[in-house]
TrEMBL record, chain A:
Keywords: Signal. InterPro entries: ABC-Tungstate_binding, PBP_domain. Residues 29-247 form the PBP domain. The keyword Transmembrane does not apply. PANTHER family: EXTRACELLULAR TUNGSTATE BINDING PROTEIN. This is Sulfate transporter. It comes from the Bacteria. It comes from Halomonas campaniensis. Residues 1-23 form the signal peptide.
Automatic annotation (TrEMBL), chain B:
Keywords: Membrane, Transmembrane, Transmembrane helix. PROSITE patterns: ABC_TM1 (PS50928). The chain crosses the membrane at residues 7-28, 34-54, 61-85, 97-118, 154-181, 201-225. One of its GO terms (biological process) is transmembrane transport. GO terms for cellular component: plasma membrane. It is found in: Cell membrane. It comes from Halomonas campaniensis. Residues 26-222 form the ABC transmembrane type-1 domain. It is a multi-pass membrane protein. The keyword Membrane applies. This is ABC transporter permease. Its main location: membrane. InterPro entries: ABC_perm_TupB-like, MetI-like, MetI-like_sf.
Length: 269, 234
């Protein structure tokens, strides 16, 4: 058995080292959101960037709250998130030197197709949310301090509703798991359009409310502070940051479609 | 829609298609978990044996702690390793966060208590049986460790497999310290979580079937090696 163990050790070591040797040195770690990753956006745009610059982008997809924390701790070279107020605070706190608009899409409300709260013909999103609260229809919330969760909570506030009670279910999960759960318990939920369109398990869920300006969902890129975290790959990260808002980057974002539907709309100034 | 049929057909299509992304995910899963089990065994086997043979104050506390750590939640282990390896943490300068090495470290922490605690128990039982003979040979306790480990080898193979099962099945720790980066730190379990969150349940279950088949294969190989060795010696 000693021989076997030795062989396994040698084998694994060998494989690990060869894998390390093959990996390119020119890469950055990008902390971004599950909505961008799950929809397949990065698979579509990163190859174009890599071809142009020779830089690979390694994406860690988490909620926006956790992405900020990863950035604050210096564990990612760049951030692409969607919470403009949070991003501006991040810059003000000195963790990032620049924030740029990259693209937008919108949030939508999905729910059971028989629409027990009757939000289909709501005029505004605030009205839709009030109807859900008044009818105490089950509502699944991310409850994970993500960008989507923050946007949802702001809208409850605008609606003058304190979301609590048995109908309001905080799941503490990402967008995908929340959609799975909402589908399972016939609940309404608040989601970004990209994750919804790319989601494969809707069961009886259907899109019930969309189109209010208040549902605007802006994504921004943050250039992290070299002063705060000197060890980060700032030169490479700056190339990514600038590429996103360049003509090529913006075109790559516009070209990305799922089921013939454009999911992200470039809007760099 | 998910049916068991399309999960199996997805699994089959994945295997037959020899998808290069799938191969790299499977390879990385095996590399990380096997590496973790080898390292954990190198530490935990002698440690468990030593704990079985030596009597010292606080020994029972150590045993209870070790037994309790067998139930350490993977996310807690992952979080601790994350805080250690994060740039803001004590070992941040090594730059290991979001690498396969970080995943191995987290799994070693998860697997080591299992191997150490079960080794302690097996060696202690064996020592109880052979104490007189070993003493009459005039062996020191340090010399007894390799003898007893060798004698317990067939039981210990199962112990190591239990450790491997823990490593290959967990997702909480590798998700946090690896970051589930496509092509870099994405393994079987984190892929399953990702596909589930995309609502792609046939793919998620298909990957689960492949993972189960792999683990079964490794256990079968270990079983055959154990049985063959037993027959030759017996």
């Amino acid at each position: 058995m000693n021989k076997t163990t030795a062989l396994i050790t040698a084998g694994t070591l060998g494989l690990t080292f060869s894998a390390t040797l093959m990996a390119a040195d020119d890469y950055i770690t990008l902390a971004s959101t599950t909505s961008t990753e799950n929809s397949g956006l990065f698979d579509a745009i990163i190859p174009a960037f890599s071809e142009e610059t020779g830089i690979d982008v390694r994406v860690v997809a988490v909620g926006t709250g956790q992405a900020f924390e990863i950035g604050r701790r210096g564990d990612a070279d760049s951030l692409l998130v969607h919470d403009t107020a949070g991003e501006e605070q991040f810059v003000a706190d000195g963790y990032a030197t620049e924030r740029l608009n990259v693209m937008y899409n919108d949030f939508v409300i999905v729910g059971p197709s028989d629409d027990p709260a009757g939000i289909r013909d709501s005029e505004t999103v605030v009205d839709a949310m009030q109807r859900i609260a008044e009818s105490e229809s089950p509502f699944a919330s991310r409850g994970d301090d993500s960008g989507t969760n923050r946007a949802e909570l702001r809208l409850w506030e605008d609606a003058g509703v304190t979301p609590q009670g048995e109908w309001y279910r905080e799941l503490g999960s990402g967008m995908g798991p929340t959609l799975n759960t909402a589908a399972g318990m016939d609940a309404y939920t608040f989601t970004d359009r990209a994750t919804w369109v790319a989601f494969d398990n809707p069961q009886d869920l259907t899109l019930l409310f969309e189109g209010d300006e208040a549902l605007f969902n802006q994504y921004g890129s943050l250039l992290l502070s070299a002063e705060r975290h000197p060890h980060l790959k700032h030169d490479l990260a700056a190339q990514w940051h600038e590429w996103l808002v360049s003509e090529q980057g913006q075109q790559a974002i516009a070209d990305f479609e799922v089921d013939d539907q454009q999911l992200f709309f470039p809007n760099a100034e | 829609m998910l049916t068991s049929d399309n999960a199996f057909s997805t699994a089959l299509a994945l295997i037959l298609g020899m998808d290069s992304a799938l191969i790299s995910i499977v390879t990385l899963s095996l590399q990380v978990s096997l590496m973790a089990v080898v390292i954990a065994s190198l530490i935990a086997l002698p440690l468990g044996a030593a704990l079985a043979l030596w009597r010292f104050p606080g020994r029972n506390v150590v045993i209870v702690a070790l037994n309790a750590l067998m139930g350490l939640p993977p996310v807690v282990a992952g979080l601790c390793v994350y805080l250690l390896l994060s740039r803001a943490g004590p070992l941040g300068e090594w730059g290991l966060l979001f690498t396969p090495t970080a995943m191995v470290i987290a799994q070693v922490i998860l697997v080591m208590p299992i191997i150490a605690a079960l080794t302690r128990q097996q060696v202690e039982a064996l020592h109880g049986e052979y104490a007189e003979q070993l003493n009459s040979l005039g062996l020191t306790r340090l010399r007894m460790i390799p003898t007893l480990l060798w004698d317990a080898r067939f039981g210990l193979l199962t112990v190591i497999l239990a450790g491997f099962g823990r490593a290959s099945a967990e997702v909480g720790a590798v998700m946090i310290v690896g970051g589930n980066i496509d092509g870099v730190t994405r393994v079987m379990t984190t892929s399953i979580v990702l596909e589930t969150s995309k609502g792609n349940l046939p793919m998620a279950l298909g990957l689960g079937i492949i993972l189960l088949a792999l683990v079964t294969m490794i256990n079968a190989i270990a079983h055959i090696i154990g049985e063959t060795a037993k027959r030759r010696l017996g």
